[in-house]
Amino acid sequence: FPQDAQWNDIDYMDGYRDFTLDSQKFASLPSLVQDLHKHGQRYVMILDPGISSTSPHGSYWPFDEGLRRGLFLNTTQGQPLIGQVWPGFTAFADFSNPDTHQWWLENLQHFYAHVPFDGLWIDMNEPSNFMDGSEDGCPPGDFDSPPYTPAVLGDSLSAKTVCASAKQKASVHYNLHNLYGLMEAKATASALIQIRGKRPFIISRSTFPSQGRYSGHWLGDNRSQWKDMYYSIPGLLSFSLFGIPLVGADICGFSGSTSEELCTRWMQLGAFYPFARNHNTQNEKAQDPTAFSPAARTAMKDVLLTRYSLLPFLYTLFHRAHLQGDTVARPLFFEFPWDVATWELDRQFLWGRSLLVTPVLEPRVDSVTGYVPQGTWYDLYTGSSVNSSGEMLKMSAPLEHLNLHIREGSILPTQKPGTTTEMTRGNPLRLIVALSSNATAWGDLFWDDGESLDTFEQGNYSYVVFNVTQNIFTSTVLHASTEATKVTIGTLSIFGVQKPPSKVLLNGQEKPFSYLDNQVLTVSDLGISLSQGFSLRWL
């Protein structure tokens, strides 16, 4: 099975305290992380902003040092505000204070020396509190009891969070509450850059506009129910609109026991979340792919391999999100705003402008009805075409199948999938051309080393544009780097070629090809470096 990352929830900690390790249950974690790295995989761990305040003085540096430097939220009396989270009584880091960023960095550096993590999962950062306000409640006043209280959980601004009157470096918490997750994400991103010298990978529960620059987001603790799987799609699309493109839900559900059918369908949908992670709570049945029948395992493996094959396309979409704020997963009305039928669609979505995803969201069915906008769409797997006038179409959807269609006029860069992104990166590319009704198509590919900082800004990347017109495919290298020399283009598949060609010419030289009755032309064994432009013509 493809797997790129192993995650840890709070169980790895000693008494659920940040920056500690359970020396009994997780003593071998450093060697596990070393083994993951040996196999080209990554390790991501959870952190909370609540710092345990009850350890004996001198035994827990994060609290002792934070207290000494004055880095926690304070009450109106100037003392650390004490709430309660997983480790018990806790103080809350004040990320509006630049000195807190330095303390956060130092804590992470100390832990990284023992467990060299690759990314961080920041949770409970609304901030969440098992108490209402603090151990002493909240003082009277307009901050905690404003003249108008929004319709919030518990009918109080302090319900399950800290007092709105709490003091922070930048302002009163009333003014900063919604920024708390963003400020923690900024501190965490800065720390990861300084520690690892690579792009920071962060997933955050609490978010605010602009946070897509610093972190991604998961949609919180869902349930193993069909309706929760469906709800994840509007959640996914909403956060795409908010400027946080790296988003997804817990695949197969977090709480409750999943079923084999639900988990199989959810793995199919989840493989097309920009952020794809299977995660569940304690004391429920296992829901990793190996926990199910051979048929379900095969279906899950197949869809994960499909995702991995599309990584070059997905990565290019993320580059566009970085460069100009594009969405990665997007609602259909973004591409077809004139088509009123797309305005309320929330059971399908697109990757970029080109790939239509139509998942099954109901139990005990072997077909799905989805909207197909006007034009020609091609089955990703077979290249067979569907000509739509803009209508709801019934599609075959046995348990092992997810419907994926490519929009006419698109060129998708794909790759032979491996079991990790690192392994996949070394495999040959396959370019899939979906010809339009006038036999044209366009696509592009952004390629760099995948993890260095500011590759685009420093020019350490390759950018290639693909184009088809008048039966001629051209690959034009607009910017080149050494990374592109490590990758070859192996196969060109052209969907929608109306009649069998008599010959195919690669840079003027005749080349073997195959042509199927469903109008798919395939040219294999190209062996062309991505760094080289080329043309291919069929006659």
From TrEMBL:
Protein name, entry field: LYAG glucosidase
Stretches assigned to the Glycosyl hydrolase family 31 C-terminal domain: 325-412
Record keywords: Glycoprotein, Glycosidase, Hydrolase
Domain of life: Eukaryota
Single GO MF descriptor: alpha-1,4-glucosidase activity
PANTHER family: ALPHA-GLUCOSIDASE, P-TYPE DOMAIN-CONTAINING PROTEIN
Listed InterPro entries: GH (IPR017853), Glyco_hydro_31_AS (IPR030458), Glyco_hydro_31_C (IPR048395), Glyco_hydro_31_CS (IPR030459), Glyco_hydro_31_TIM (IPR000322), Glyco_hydro_b (IPR013780)
Family under the similarity heading: Belongs to the glycosyl hydrolase 31 family.
Start and end residues of each Glycoside hydrolase family 31 TIM barrel domain: 1-317
